[in-house]
Write a structure and sequence with these properties.
Layout (H helix, E strand, L loop, with lengths): L2 E6 L6 H12 L3 E7 L1 H6 L9 H11 L4 E5 L4 H8 L4 E5 L14 E5 L7 H7 L3 E7 L2 H10 L5 E7 L3 H4 L7 E3 L2 H5 L4 E5 L2 H13 L3 E5 L6 H13 L4 E4 L6 H11 L6 E9 L11 H17 L5 E8 L7 E9 L4 E7 L8 E5 L2 E5 L8 E6 L6 E4 L7 H14 L8 H15 L4 E2 L1
Helix pairs in contact: 9-10, 10-14, 12-14
This protein binds cytidine-5'-triphosphate (CTP).
The site of cytidine-5'-triphosphate has 17 residues, from helix 1, strand 4 and helix 5.
Keywords: Nucleotidyltransferase, Transferase
Protein name: Glycerol-3-phosphate cytidyltransferase, TagD
Pfam families: CTP_transf_like, GFO_IDH_MocA
């Protein structure tokens, strides 16, 4: 019996996939199809596969061509599979010519002519394209612009910046304007990264004008305003999402999952530090707005938002009102504690430590853009290190989630609305001077 194996993503199953599977089957007597897992795809740069693994497996099964379907989960699995299933022929489309020659040591390798004129990427791009406008100032604007190039189904239509000089960084076939209304009239969605004091007004205006909003956290500096914006988004059938890129990092999501599954026992303490010294770019976000949302994220995602008490200590810059150079917040929960340290004028080790009754999770600096963490135990031999690829600091995955939410008309945000609310409430307390001045 000749056994054949082939691998693919099979997103939005199309004629090209069908033809490939037919010819693969014809090469032998028994066909095994490896369907790539979502994480594996992410790691090799296919970030906006639209269908779930289950849906993609179902499409392959429905052809009736596969005698067996397996899931491809890791680099190097092909060799393992070929040995395990005693494969005679490995085959893929001609877009991969040469790439799998190394497998000839184990079996025959056949490249089948790729069907012209059809691909999952094309089908994904033909779906409604979302035109995105970028609003605000600073390097994040450039980062989002660059990252948007990796996301199917999205085109940047224009940039609105208060900083005329910054507009010069972008292609002039875009709408480059200082007029927010002009931008709103020409886009379907916006990403806001203006000064936090402008977020609420800009988000509100966009939502009133039928434009979806992804807004750098904090979306609003008052809880009431935040609730009003989410209500408005709902009423107008629009997506409003809080932007904290760390929420979309694979490593961060894995550590949340492991902590919640009890890997380190009960979580007793979450300690997050995020600091950066002013880079002279005129960036005027204070510590609590610049870093607070990111540092608060693991606290609220792990311990929830029902804390009993919080205590804010801030060091203010003399000359400016409520501009904190450094803030430390301590939270008390019924069975746990947490602390965040954020600074724009004080530097510290940017690590995240989650302490539990059986062990702890350690994420080295800068934990908010990590691809790596460790779980450590009393017995060092049980320690484990985890690596996950992080592309574009999480921004591109965040954009994919935003575009997908717009397409499906249902929020796919990784940040629960209660967490966004609590972040705004912390900002509000700080702005109402509910802190101890150091
Ligand atoms: N394939 C093919 N002809 C096409 C598209 C795909 O023969 N027009 C083959 C690929 O070479 C591969 C298999 O089908 O062996 C699965 O491909 P996959 O990467 O899932 O599909 P694509 O349409 O190429 O996806 P994308 O556009 O996301 O790269």
């Amino acid at each position: 019996m000749i056994k054949v194996i082939t691998y693919g993503t099979y997103d939005l199953f199309h004629y090209g996939h069908q033809r490939l599977l037919e010819r693969a089957k014809a090469l032998g007597d028994y066909l095994i199809v490896g369907v790539t897992a979502d994480d594996f795809d992410k790691n090799r740069g296919k970030i906006n596969v639209q269908q779930s693994l289950m849906e993609r497996i179902e499409s392959v099964r429905a052809t009736g061509l596969a005698d067996e379907i397996i899931i491809e989960e890791y680099e190097g699995q092909k060799i393992d599979d070929i040995k395990r299933y005693d494969i005679d022929i490995f085959t893929v489309g001609s877009d991969w010519v040469g790439e799998f020659d190394y497998l000839r040591e184990y079996c025959d390798v056949v490249y089948l002519e790729r069907t012209e004129g059809v691909s999952s990427t094309d089908i994904r791009s033909k779906d409604r394209q979302v035109t995105l406008g970028l609003v605000g100032e600073g390097l994040v604007l450039n980062k989002f612009y660059n990252e948007s190039q990796y996301v199917n189904g999205l085109t940047v239509g224009g940039i609105c910046s208060g900083d005329e000089n910054q507009l010069k960084d972008f292609d002039d076939d875009l709408i480059l304007t200082q007029d927010f209304d002009e931008l709103l009239n020409n886009v379907d969605a916006i990403f806001i990264v203006s000064h936090p004091s402008k977020h609420y007004k800009q988000a509100k205006k966009a939502l009133e004008n039928g434009v979806h909003v992804l807004c750098e956290s904090p979306i609003a500096l008052k809880e009431e305003e935040l609730c009003e914006l989410f209500k408005l988004a709902k009423k107008n059938n629009l997506i409003l999402m809080d932007s904290i890129k760390t929420a979309y990092s694979t490593a961060y999501n894995r550590l949340l999952l492991l902590a919640k599954k009890g890997k380190i026992g009960d979580v007793i303490s979450v300690d997050a530090t995020c600091t950066s010294l002013a880079d002279g770019s005129g960036d005027d976000w204070n510590s609590i707005t610049a870093w607070g949302p990111t540092a608060l994220l693991p606290v609220f995602q792990l311990l929830g938002t029902d804390y009993k008490d919080k205590n804010i200590n801030s060091l203010l810059l003399d000359s400016a009102e409520n501009f904190d150079l450094f803030t430390k917040i301590d939270f008390t929960y019924p069975n746990a504690v947490a602390s965040i340290k954020v600074g724009k004028g004080v530097k510290s080790e940017g690590e995240l430590i989650i302490s539990g009754t059986k062990g702890y999770i350690y994420v080295p600096a800068p934990w908010w853009k990590t691809d790596y963490f460790e779980i450590r135990f009393e017995n060092q031999n049980e320690n484990k290190k985890y690596f996950y690829q992080l592309d574009g600091e999480g921004i591109r995955y965040e954009l994919v989630a935003f575009i997908k939410s717009i397409e499906l008309n249902k929020t796919g945000s990784y940040i629960d609305i209660n967490i966004s609310k609590e972040i705004s409430s912390v900002m509000e307390d700080f702005n109402n001077n509910k802190f101890n001045n150091l």
